[in-house]
What we know:
Layout: H1 2-19, H2 21-37, H3 42-56
Helix pairs in contact: 1-2, 1-3, 2-3
Amino acid sequence: SIELCVNFLKSSGDALEKLNQNLTQEIYEKMREILHEGTIDRKSQYLIESLFAIRKSNYKNFPSIIKELDIIDED
């Protein structure tokens, strides 16, 4: 579902961008195609548009690693 995809990209998009920018670009291009087809409901359109806004802000409020949860010592 679009909602599942958007939520996944919100939580892991920052890490995906760092790992494989080309693949991430393809995912976003597919989301853009879905948006421009105009065959989805308003909620899905809003979710995709909000995802693009989050990406544009470089996932500012959606870090890939939350510092409080990084409890493994690198040594």
